[in-house]
Structures are given as structure tokens and as C-alpha cells.
């Protein structure tokens, strides 16, 4: 066997073990007994130790050097594979095995502590373990950032961000987010002050019926149930890749859209993973290239497709069949109900106008925590002050504030900004998709997002991590991604809904 063959065989086993670790995480958040948390943390730490050992094995560096010397200049596929392996290896060797295992153990415990604190509305119970997670993640970032190939030290937060959006920097995102904020705030003010306000649904919806509709819609959006399943979780998520991709959702008797659009959102993530070329499976290319690109799929499924006037017209009829009279007879009014802008506290339930403002709040606060300028003990006060300043309403309880998201408990510092970056990417993809599919609304009005789903698979999903994140979007759209298309789409959509 060549050095490339040896390396890829080693990598295939590493990727398979990483999938097993992900499955343990899925189990922990869905069906694991509450009393199993401590043992599970030890199991996950043990498996993380095995993975870290494989990723830092000296043989990997030897294989890389030989494989790169043997590689032909026109072999883009294997060149991309080696790029990812070298990048992951270079980062992994800087992290002590002790630290990698400890992060896995502590974040497993912290996830359970977060869930308990959230249920009890008790921030103080969560602060000690959050402090521990943050300390470990700082240590990890500092180890990776120190002495890179150019002999310089990277910014700590940029190093964390690189885990989720390779190549992005906080400075770049600051500029993009700075362009988004004023136009979104101005639109929100116009919408909230508009004479016309869409009605609200004022009735209960059977939760079993919601799950029936969620499964139906998931299938229509391309989710393959022979390689996946839907379960309930406190915080909806997608897990896995290739032939085992699982999603979760949640239900609320008074809010069927919570279940429906959480499902469509996670299906977007899942279809990306299920749709990658099988030739890339269990290789470095066999997963989404970044969380920003991943989020572009979930957001375009959820918003530009799922919340479009054409699709909600179909949804109005289908929900009437399932649940009876909705109290909203006109499909246009129903489109307004689905897209209603209101002063909500929960990011995942937010409307498109305000969603990114929720993300920017988290982006700023986590950078302050990572830099040591904001202590976890002061997070609740900082969150509540910033939220009231940004949204004009107080935070009544922690589950609607700093305890609503799971991310920090499991160490995902640097993850939040990729949500808004994904929205930006989705805006660019939607512009290109509409250009290529002029009759898309006819299909959406029949409850069939298939043409759009196939376009996204053809132009984005099948390639997995073959290209860099921004290059993935640019290749699909034929343009360098920026915030312009997203802002134009949101402003036009909500001007129509609110008759501005």
C-alpha cells in the first residue's frame, strides 16, 4: 500500500470512531437515563482519548509527508483530503491528551448540569461548571494558537472560531455584522410600528399531530428515514453523517410552528450530511465543510423555502385538515402568522428580522468571556442588560435568557456567529436558486420543495468538505458571498407582509 492508502485507512477508522462518539452525545440528549450522566462522561472521555491518540499518532505526520510528495499536481480530491488531515493533525498535536479527555468529561457533565439548571431557573447552579468549561477551552485555544507555522500567535477567539468556520476571523465577522445590524434594527422598528399586524393562533394543537406533520414535512424536504430518525430533545439538533443522521425536535401545545420549523431546520442539516457523495464517506470530505455552510442549508430550508408565501399557503390547508379550524381563514394572513415579528426571548423561535440580533448578542458576550473581561458569575446580569437594550423588553427568567442555549455548556465557544454567517450564505444561495428555478413557487404551493432541495444537493451538499467554506458558496452562487442578498430578501419580504 502507498502512504496515501495507509493514511486513508487510518483516517477511516478515526472517522468511524468519531461517529460513535457523536452517537453517545445523541443518546445523552434524547433517551439516556438521568442517573447515567457521570458514567457517560467517563465513557466519552475514554473515547476522546482514543481519538486524540489516533489524531496525534506520529505515523500520521510521516504518512502525510510521503503522501504529499507522491501526490500529482492535478489530484484535487486527494489534495483536499490531505489538507484536512494535516490541519486537524497540526491542531491536535498541540493539545495534550490529558486536556482533550478532560474537556470531553467536563462538557458531558456540564450538559446535564445546564439542563437541570435551566429546568430549575437556577443560574448559580450552572456557573461553577461553566467556569470550568471556559477555563479548559481557553487552555485548549491557547495551546493551538501558540507558535503556528508562521511563528506567530493567533487571537484566542479566532482559534476557537476556526473550529467551526475555518479561515474566518472575528474582525471579518464584526464588519459583516456591523453592516447587518442598522438595517435590521431599522426594519424591526418599522415593522413593530406598522398599522397592520398579523393575527396570532389562539388554540391548542395536539402534540402527536404535530409530530405526524413534522415527519411528513421532513420526508417532503428530502430526509431519508431509512438512514435517520426523529426524536424529542430540550434543544433541537442534528447528529451524524452518511448513513446514520438523526434529528430531534420539540413540541409545544400552543405553538405548532416550534415543532414544525425546528424539524425543517434540522432536516436542512441532516440532508446536507445525507446528501454528500458516498465516495467521501468516512473521509475528511464526508462531512459539512463548516458550521456556516451547514447553517446555510438549515436556514434556507426553514425560511426561504419553509416560510415562503407559496409554501405556507399549502401548509395552511394541510394544518386545517389535521387540526381543524385554525382561526385564520385567509392564506395570506396565515403567511403573516407564520412570519409574525414579536418581542420574543428565544433565539430558535425568533423571526427572521430579529434572529441575527439574538446571535450578535451571544457573539459579543462570548468574546468577552473568552477574553476574560466577563466572568461566568456576571453573565446573567450582562445578558439581561444587553437584551433589554437590544430588544426593549426585560428577561423574566433565566430559561428565557442566558440558560436557553446548550452551546456554552458543551464548550462550543466560537459557534454562535456561524448562525448569522449561515443566514448570509443562505441569502446568496436563495438569490441563485430563484434565478435558476423561476417556477419554484408552483412546486412549493403544492407542498413540494423537491426542486429546491435537489438544486441545493447538486450545487452544495454533494461536495461535502471538498472546497473551503466561502469557496463552497461562491461555487454554488457564482459570486463572492456578502450580506446584500440576505438584507434585500428580508426587507422585501417583511415590507409585503406588513404592508409597509
UniProtKB/TrEMBL annotation:
Its EC number is 3.4.17.19. It comes from the Bacteria. One of its GO terms (biological process) is proteolysis. Keywords: Carboxypeptidase, Hydrolase, Metal-binding, Metalloprotease, Protease, Zinc. Its cofactor is Zn(2+). It catalyses: Release of a C-terminal amino acid with broad specificity, except for -Pro. Zn(2+) binds at residues 265, 269, 295. Binds 1 zinc ion per subunit. One of its GO terms (molecular function) is metallocarboxypeptidase activity. The active site is at 266 (proton donor/acceptor). InterPro entries: Peptidase_M32_Taq. The keyword Protease applies. Broad specificity carboxypetidase that releases amino acids sequentially from the C-terminus, including neutral, aromatic, polar and basic residues. Belongs to the peptidase M32 family. This is Metal-dependent carboxypeptidase. The lineage of its organism: Bacteria, Pseudomonadati, Pseudomonadota, Alphaproteobacteria, Rhodobacterales.
